[in-house]
Amino acid sequence: KYEDIVSIIESVIETQKVNTKIHQFHLQKETDKTTVLGDRDKLAQVFTNLVSNAIKYSPEGGNITVRMYERGNRLCIDVQDEGLGIPEEALPNLFTKFYRVDNSDRRRIGGTGLGLAIVKEIVKAHEGEVSVTSELKKGSTFTVSLPLVALANAEEEERDNYEKYAHAHVIIVEDDEHLA
Ligand code: ATP
Ligand code: MG
């Protein structure tokens, strides 16, 4: 199915923002192409896990910024926090099942270490990628990139098709079932 990432992220933030210390949630949309092909519930799971981590590992609060932009033919979504950060040596293990960073800062923060493994699995199934950059005590940024569908900008596509086929007697039947 075609899904708009903006509406998925808005609903994730709406659900997650209650009862947190987070100062403000920012949603920065730097592209109009935000339609991807995928499963709405699974994509919502990805951003629920990332946003809930951003909240959980920001015990002092701070801001959370979700930024959407286009790179090549991909939609990139950054989830950035101003929390504890992640030690460099932990970064390669982060997406491994049951892996948790253990240090005095976060000993009291509970979890099973599955959230990011699930993120990676779902993103992979959508032919996307997930990566992370972080600085201890400054914060972390998780980036998900997903392929933008050719029909991402439906109106543009329709106009292009119209121009292309304006002089031919063709009817274009769109069948997106096989893409779902
Ligand atoms: P679960 O998500 O299963 O409840 P979890 O949050 O510990 O448990 P993951 O979401 O997989 O597991 O994260 C793995 C580890 O990566 C965490 O234990 C935490 O140490 C670190 N981590 C993840 N996100 C962040 C973040 N935004 N800031 C700092 N550390 C993070
Ligand atoms: Mg987690």
UniProtKB/TrEMBL annotation:
Residues 1-150 form the Histidine kinase domain. Signal peptide: none annotated. It comes from the Bacteria. It is found in: Cell membrane. This is histidine kinase. The chain holds residues 661 to 840 of 963 of the full protein.
